[in-house]
Structure formats: C-alpha cells, structure tokens
C-alpha cells in the first residue's frame, strides 16, 4: 500500500470511529452503474451521521470496487453469472436500444424486449441465489443484526431478504418501465390520462391519441411484465417461502419509497405518504477543478465552455459518428470538455479536449459553463438542474429519451437524435441553448425549484431512512389499498351491486306499470264486455 | 386605554416594526370560530418573520376582535347579515346535529341539511357582497398591493377575489363534506374504496357494506352540493366576471392547499404536490399555569387531572345532562378542570372545578394530565396528540364524530354518545383511557408521529406561504388533471374507443367466419348438388 493510500485509509478510519453506539446498522442491497453512483453520497452521509453501512456486493460487480479504501463495510457474495456475461448483457441492451430499435416494428421491438426481460430475470435469480441460497451469507446477514435494508429494487429480491431477516425496508428508485412496480406493488395512483408512464416519451399534456397511447403502454407493459417477469419471480419467492407468495405484494411491504426525482424534473402527479421525492441526492456545490482543466476553462474567455458526456455505459461510438460530433463541436466559439474513451476523432477542433474522466458536477457548477451536452441520464440531468445549466440531449436508451422529453417540455433543453443527427443539427442545438435566453432562464427556474424546498434532497432521504430505523418501520404511512383486490380498489363490486339494484328497481317499475296497465285495460275490457 | 393595555400595544408595535422591506404583504380572508383560532398562530409567525398581515373582518364577526391590541392590520367590511342572524344560524346548526338528527330518517336529515346549505349559501353571498360589491373595499384591496391571499375556503369567494386582484392564493383547510372541494376542485385523488369521505364516520378499513356506504356518501354529497351550493355560486361568479365561470374551477386555481391534518390523525391516502399536510399548526409547548390553577392541579397527587371541554360553540347544556356529567366526574379519583359557562350542576363533586376559560394547551401539556374529555374538535384533538394525552370523546356535530372515529381507530380514545350516555358510561370511559395502558401508549405513538417529521407543522405552513410569495405562485405543482373533463380523467373516452375497436374486430371476425363457413357449406352444397 502506498503512503497516500495508507493516509487516506487512516483518515477514513478516523471518520469511521464516529459510528456511535446510537448509530443504526444498515444493510445495502447490491446495485450497479449509475444506481450505485447515486446511492453512494447517501451512504456517505449516513456514515458521517454515525451509522454503520454494509453493502452486499456480487462477485461480478462492474462498478463497486471493494478494494477501494472506504468507510463502507462490504459483504461480497458469489454469483454464477460471470463478469463477461454481465458486460455482454449490457452491450446487447445498449445495441438494441441505439442501433436496432429504429429499424424495428412495434411487434419486433416487443419480442426483442421480452428476450431482454428473460435474460434480466435469469440474472436476477442467479444473483438472488448468491445471497439466499448461500448459507454462509444468510448466516452472516442474520448475525449482522441489521436495523434496515436499503435497496434499489432494480435488482429484485431485497424485499424477500428483508422479510426473512425481519427488518424494515427502504427503497430508493428512479423508475420502473411504465411505473408498473410503483403502481401495482407500491399502490401509487397513476391515472393514464395525465401521468405519462416512465419511458413513454410523453408529457403530462396529452391529446386524445397520446392518451390512448399511454393507456395502451400501461396495459401492454403490465401484461408483458406479468408474463415474463413477475410469474417467474412469484415462483421463486413461493419456493423460498414454501407458501404461494406474490413478489409484487412483497415489494409493496416496503416502508418508504425514495423516488429519485422531484417537481423540477417530474410532472406533478399524485403520490402517497410513504413516497418521498428526493431527486438530486448526489448533487453538491462545485469543488475547484484540477489546475490544467481550470486553465483550459479560463482560456474560453466570455464565450465560456460546453461540457459533453455520453454517460458511463457507452464507452465507444463509430469513427464516423465521432468525426461528425467533433466537427460540430469545432464550429462553436466555446471551449469543449468531452468525456470520451474511444478513438480520437480526426475532425477534433482546437477548442475541444477529450478526457477519460471529468469532474462533471464541478464543471457544471463552474461559472464559465454555458451548456451541457448529455445522453440524458438522470444523474447528469440533475447536476445540470442543480447548477441551472441548459442542456442539449442526445438520448439513447432506457429512460434517457423520456428524461430529455421532460427537460425539453420544461424549456431547458433541445434534443437531437443520436442515429440521424448531422453536424449542423448538433451545432444549431448547442448554439440555440446558449444564445436563446429562454433556455438559460428555464434552467435557472428548474434550479430554483430544486433548491427552494423545506430540506435538501439528501437530507430528506437520510431523514426518512433514519425515521424508518427509529420507528422500526413506517407502516402507518402505507395506504389500506394494499389490502384490496383490483376490482375492490376501483369499486367495481360496489358499482355491480348498484347496477343490479337499479336494474331490479327498473324491472319492478316496468312490471308494475305493465301489471297496472293490463289491470286497467282488463277492467276496461271487462266493463266494455259487461256494457255489451 | 389602561396602562397595561398601552404597554402591550407598545410591545406589539415594537414587534411590528420588524416588518422588513423584504417582508411580504399578505391579505387574509375572513373566517370564524375554531378556523380563526387555528389560523392565528400562523399569522403571528408570519409577522415575526417580517411580513405584513391584513385580515378582512366582516361586521358580524363573532370571534375576531378588531379592538384587541394586535400586530395584524384589519380591513373591516359591512355585511347585511346581522350578528344575531349568524348566532341563530350557528345555534340552529348545533341544535339540528345534537338534538334533531338522532330522531330523523335519512331523507328528513338530507332535507334539513339542504335547508342549512341554503342558508349557508345565502350568508356566503351576503358576505361576498360586502367585499366584492363595496367599491371602497375593492379599491383598498387593489391599492394594498398584496403579494398573496391566504384563505380558509369555509367562507367561499377568496379565489374570485384573488383572481380579480391578480395575486397568488393559498388555502388553509380542515375538510369539506365528503371532501367534495378537495376532490373535484383541487383534483385530490380519493378512491372511495379506502379513503373515507370526511364526516362519513368510516375508517380506511371498510368491509363491502361500508364501501357501498362510502361510495353512496360521495355520490349523494356531490349531487346535493352541486344542486344547492355550486350552481348558486357559479351564477354569482359568472355575474361578477361577466362570463360563464365555474366556482369549483376557480377554487382549483389555488396554488397551495394547506390541509390541517397529518398522518398522526388522517388515514394514509393519496395526495398531490400542492397539498401540504400541516395538522397541529397551532400546537406549542405548554406555558406555566395560573397560580391558583397550578395549586389545584398539584393537589391531585399521583391520580393526576382530567381536562374537560365541549368546545367554543356549545355554551350550554340541559340541567339534566349537566348533572349527569358532573356526577360521573365526581366518581373518578382524578381532579377535573371543566371549561363550562352554563349553570353550575347540583351534583358537582369536590374534585371538579368549573372555569369560564381554561389554558387548554398548557393543561394538556401538564405532566399531571391523565385524560382529555373532548367534543372532538380538530384543534383540541391536535393539542392532545401533541402532548400524548388519551381522549374520551363526546362528539356532537360537523366533523367531531368523524374525528373521534379516527382517534378511536388508532386506539387512543373511547367515545360516548352525547344524547344517550349515562353516568356509568362516562365514568367507565374515563377510567378505561386512564387505567388501560394501551390508550396512553397509542396517544404517545401518535404524538411521536406528530413530532417526528422533517419540519414542524407551523414551519411547514409558513414555508409554503412564503414559497408562494417568493415564486409568485406555485403553478408548477398543480396537476394537469385540472385541464381534463371527468370522462377524460377516468380515460372513459379511451376505453370507449378501445371497446369500439374490439367490437369491430370481433364483428369482422364473426362476419369473416360466417362468410367462410357459408362459402364452404355453399361449395359443399354445390358439389353435393353436382354429384347428385
């Protein structure tokens, strides 16, 4: 171990001893990619506040580095899926979204999506096996005497483990496709008429055809997920519990759902007392830039800089695309800092520098920053909102296109299509968000909404995690809807009864009228006959 | 003016000069009774924070004393209704609920209720005339350059005035009957299957018959209120605006709804980003009691004391009822402090003292307090929750029975019926809540929920009022549902289209089958005929 490393470990250990006797003991479910990036600052804050944090880490983890000096305790476990399997899955997933989807019919898209879902479930269950079917791990978790399980449900199973360990559960979640998990498992009310399903690319202002589309999106997703995801999970849960168990109902047992959005990004929508909107938990004021970088930034003069990244998952793009992008960047008066680990494009301008890594938050918080070119990941968008930077979106997959639709609808971004964009499109988009005042004004307005709340996102997330530990759960914030069937929830049984009663009364009325009429006519007939 | 009064005015003026240049200018809509008691502490906090507060006060006000030294500015206005009219209306209202309702059929009750509604609307419009049709008042309000109108919508019309003055509007509201205003005008989602309508006396755990009841309660209330309240208000609004105007839609323009409940009292339910739950805004730590009272309280020894009040509206009860209550109180080991301004009962025990006024919050916060006998008003209940005191409810009218159902369901109260209770019932109820541990434990649990939140109720109310001023409204927290019709909201048009498509496909399928079948049969027939 080098001296610097040893020193930083000592400082960390010094910080770690603040784990007080009153601190809680928190178990963190495994996660990956930007989800891990997002949860880390919360864990650090929890440690600073005297809690003990232990993170479950699968042997295939791509983003969690257990060898890195850290205040977290790690609980590694083995999974049968290899690191290569995971990388292949992610690359296949990205390829599908970026290169295949545009040339597919809806049916082809859904068939391909079902394949993705099938692999996802298979890996999910493999990961779960690594925890649940390992006696050593389960013994350790039982002996760990944890006060709470904190989980991003993107890797399902945490609810089952929390139930087995008998501890409260707090979810931290960005979204599920069409919000199926939140709607059905969390009982979050979500009328399709004004709440666009996650990744639907719709806004809350929908015309008739869009409302039909959103309605169908919910319905199709519900069916597909039910068939290809939940039935398999139900079977697994039932086997583990030894009794028929609904994985969705188990998910609904979560005490608190920390949703990683807020009204700066999300369209206003109904929610529940145990849903807390903590978008931007990872944002923080900027730190000074590395010296070289600061010099480059300062050299931009009044024109300022543009920050450009396509996220942590996309490592490379085609040479042609690289040249096209570089050529657009070369034509703007700003200096550009581009996070890119692929081949250096031949058309790279003197105003553009390529970096393997950039301090994204610090750059976005720099007074010289004029725009952010982003793939539209929630983490980056939130950093731009936090610092009030207008955006150019080049969304590609997952929630990225949907995210950019939101920021565009709020007037703080222009979007260009990754596959079809030309040099001119990108250049015009950058010039627009920098030179047309409204984009900056709207970005500042979103920033103001973000900052102007009773407590910061991270503090609120930490508050509700500690709250759940203090109160050994938060079941009093859970709606009674969890105990109702879908037809009870929508009062369909009540409506059926009322309809039957109305029909019965109507029938009785008609029968009585017919009877009276026939009696009258009969009597008249009789009278007539008598008169005859 | 006496010296003491002069001194207190000076102190108040000294406090008032803290109105900074940055403070907002807030107009407060007129209100009455416990609603005024509830809003006052928020106004005082706003003044302490440097804002200017002006309260509209009708000439008939029963609870707002403009001659009292105060930091508020008052804007008095004349109404044609007399003080006697108002008192008669309130007494008639109380009489109906306490003495008449028990002997009425549902139909009679509704006919009587419609009468009450009719008078309420008439008085509402008279009050509104006092503001809107007075040129002097409207000129003053216009010249006042207010930043915000804060209103309890129990007296409607504030939304119309806010619209005319062109200023943001914040509501502070306990409830409307069956939550019609919140549901229809505020777009608060409220499935009848698990959200009991306000004053329905139901909990969130409903069996089938209760769900039918709740559904019908919503429906009947919607119809009655539509016919006897909203149509008249719509007519008035349309006349004033000179264009067809929906009073309910106007109400829906409110920026923030401060709901005066929280999850310590309310059953968990869906809500919206512009609905903030601030139950208990008036609660505060106890102050020392007056010397004589403290001596009496201390004389109770270990047995402790019981605090008893039937609220601010009910001044008197029958001699018989008074004796019955006094007799029950005489039989308990605790000392009793009874707020009562009627005739002294003959059976009054030595342990009971009658007061014209009691410092209710300070008594409930006293360590010797064992129980609170209450009519079930929200203000009193919240003080008891704040201090963790178990309750005996003697609810009478308005939301009181419903309030007590909630506290009883949460295990912190026993309820006795005002009309039918006997000495034994009251005595047993008091003994139960004092001697059975669970009541105190549950009261303490509610108190813990009340206190354990990110910020206090009053601070949260003040935050959102200031927020609305700072941001000149909070329209970005308003759901898009406001722009939809009821059938669009419930996607009924979408369902109709999908149904038509399904029917069309079905019909096409049947027709095709029939055609194919007839072709096949026809050909067979032809072949047969040819063979013949």
UniProtKB/TrEMBL annotation, chains A, B:
It catalyses: glucuronate acceptor + UDP-alpha-D-glucuronate = acceptor beta-D-glucuronoside + UDP + H(+). It comes from Perca fluviatilis (European perch). PANTHER family: EG:EG0003.4 PROTEIN-RELATED, UDP-GLUCURONOSYLTRANSFERASE 2A1. Keywords: Glycosyltransferase, Membrane, Signal, Transferase, Transmembrane, Transmembrane helix. It comes from the Eukaryota. Belongs to the UDP-glycosyltransferase family. Its EC number is 2.4.1.17. The lineage of its organism: Eukaryota, Metazoa, Chordata, Craniata, Vertebrata. PROSITE patterns: UDPGT. This is UDP-glucuronosyltransferase. It is found in: Membrane.
């Amino acid at each position: 171990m080098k001296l610097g490393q040893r020193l930083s470990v000592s400082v960390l250990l010094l910080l770690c001893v603040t784990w007080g006797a009153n601190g809680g003991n928190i178990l963190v479910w495994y996660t990956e990619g930007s989800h891990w990036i997002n949860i880390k600052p919360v864990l650090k804050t929890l440690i600073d506040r005297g809690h003990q944090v232990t993170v479950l880490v699968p042997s295939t983890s791509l983003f969690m580095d257990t060898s890195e000096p850290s205040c977290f305790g790690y609980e590694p476990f083995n999974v049968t899926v290899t690191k290569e399997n995971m990388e292949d899955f992610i690359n296949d997933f990205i390829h599908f979204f970026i290169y295949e989807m545009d040339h597919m019919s809806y049916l082809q898209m859904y068939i391909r999506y079902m394949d993705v879902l099938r692999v996802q479930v298979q890996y999910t269950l493999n990961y779960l096996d690594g925890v649940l079917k390992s006696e050593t791990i389960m013994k350790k978790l039982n002996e760990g005497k944890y006060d709470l399980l904190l989980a991003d449900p993107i890797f399902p199973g945490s609810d089952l483990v929390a139930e087995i360990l008998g501890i409260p559960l707090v979810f931290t979640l960005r979204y599920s496709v069409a919000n199926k998990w939140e709607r059905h498992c969390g009982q979050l009310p979500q009328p399709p008429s004004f709440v666009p399903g996650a990744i639907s690319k719709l806004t809350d202002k929908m015309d008739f055809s869009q409302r039909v589309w959103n309605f169908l999106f919910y319905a199709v997703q519900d069916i597909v997920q039910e068939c290809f995801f939940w039935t398999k999970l139900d079977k697994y849960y039932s086997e583990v519990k030894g009794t028929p168990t609904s994985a969705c109902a188990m998910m609904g047992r979560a005490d608190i759902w920390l949703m990683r959005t807020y009204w700066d990004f999300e369209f206003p929508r109904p929610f529940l007392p145990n849903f807390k909107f903590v978008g931007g938990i990872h944002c923080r004021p900027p730190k000074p830039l590395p010296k070289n970088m600061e010099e480059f930034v300062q050299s931009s003069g009044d024109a300022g800089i543009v920050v450009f990244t396509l996220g942590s998952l996309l490592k490379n793009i085609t040479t042609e695309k690289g040249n096209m992008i570089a050529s657009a960047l070369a034509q703007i008066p700003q200096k550009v800092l581009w996070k890119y680990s692929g081949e250096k494009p031949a058309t790279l301008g003197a105003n553009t520098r390529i970096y393997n890594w950039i301090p994204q938050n610090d750059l976005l918080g720099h007074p010289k920053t004029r725009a952010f070119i982003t793939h539209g990941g929630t983490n980056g968008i939130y950093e731009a909102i936090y610092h009030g930077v207008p955006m150019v979106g080049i969304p590609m997959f997952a929630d990225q296109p949907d995210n950019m639709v939101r920021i565009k609808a709020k007037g703080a971004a222009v979007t260009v299509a990754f596959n079809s964009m030309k040099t001119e499109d990108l250049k015009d988009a950058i010039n627009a968000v920098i030179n047309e005042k409204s984009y900056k004004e709207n970005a500042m307005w979103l920033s103001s909404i973000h900052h102007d709340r009773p407590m910061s996102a991270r503090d609120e997330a930490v508050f509700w995690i500690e709250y759940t530990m203090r109160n050994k759960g938060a079941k009093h914030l859970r709606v009674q809807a969890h105990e109702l069937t879908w037809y009870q929830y929508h009062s369909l049984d009540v409506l059926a009864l009322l309809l039957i009663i109305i029909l019965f009364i109507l029938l009785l009325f008609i029968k009585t009228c017919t009877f009276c009429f026939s009696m009258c006519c009969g009597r008249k007939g009789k009278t007539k006959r008598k008169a005859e």
